[in-house]
Hints:
By secondary structure, this protein is of the alpha/beta class. It has helices spanning about 5-30, 55-65, 80-85, 100-110, 140-145, 175-185, 205-215, 250-255, 275-285, 290; strands at about 40-50, 70-75, 95, 115-130, 135-140, 165-170, 200, 220-225, 230-235, 235, 260-270. The chain has two domains: about 40-120 and about 260-290, Periplasmic binding protein-like II (D-Maltodextrin-Binding Protein, domain 2, 3-Layer(aba) Sandwich), CATH 3.40.190.10; about 125-260, Periplasmic binding protein-like II (D-Maltodextrin-Binding Protein, domain 2, 3-Layer(aba) Sandwich), CATH 3.40.190.10.
Amino acid sequence: xxxxxxxxxxxxxxxxxxxxxxxxxxxxxxxxxxxxxxxxxxxxxxxxxxxxxxxxxxxxxxxxxxxxxxxxxxxxxxxxxxxxxxxxxxxxxxxxxxxxxxxxxxxxxxxxxxxxxxxxxxxxxxxxxxxxxxxxxxxxxxxxxxxxxxxxxxxxxxxxxxxxxxxxxxxxxxxxxxxxxxxxxxxxxxxxxxxxxxxxxxxxxxxxxxxxxxxxxxxxxxxxxxxxxxxxxxxxxxxxxxxxxxxxxxxxxxxxxxxxxxxxxxxxxxxxxxxxxxxxxxxxxxxxxxxxxxxxxxxx
Length: 300
């Protein structure tokens, strides 16, 4: 009996060690989830540019057909609110129709956020007037004179003797910022210029189009995807005397139309998991919606 106790204890120890080894082996054999795999019941918030909104809605629908377990919440409001939502952690994706500003980068750094830029499409900005307006084309400099308030009557541009009504976007809009840089400030050659004080600010491209369509003295601007037969899009020349080009997808592609820009999504760091899958979808299969809606694809 004295000899059996140590033997029994030894056997018990061997059995315990073997069991631990087997369990460890089982754990090692369990497959790891692939990076970028989509988990169940996840919500991705994307907020921002109203220009990107119709595209984002199409991308949401297409992605949900592939990954129905992921809820994509899409809303507009403007590029600035979208970037603020990314910085304060209430959105995983910020949709923007302009690059992130230096001040926003500083705010992000203070909040521990690392904005990473993803170009998802390109867009031209059409300058629109009422269909009855006889003016058919303008240069960037002429547009700068109008939108900065230097030119105030259509007669100065070959039109009727009528005061010009400027229809603008609200200051939180990326379209507002992009148009200001490209047109009002003439790509930086007139950086002292700003929009005229007497402008009507609208919250979306669609409202700009509707307002111009209803007002004979009006002039405004919108993304190509929002052009409608109810307004007239002007041909635009890069400089006085240069050939003017129509605002079309083809002319944005060949760079003959001078008012164009990139459209962005921003994430906090390099995307992972479902967000990575979504960005990959947007840059891949989701590009089929880009030209359908009047934008220009990133693969072109």
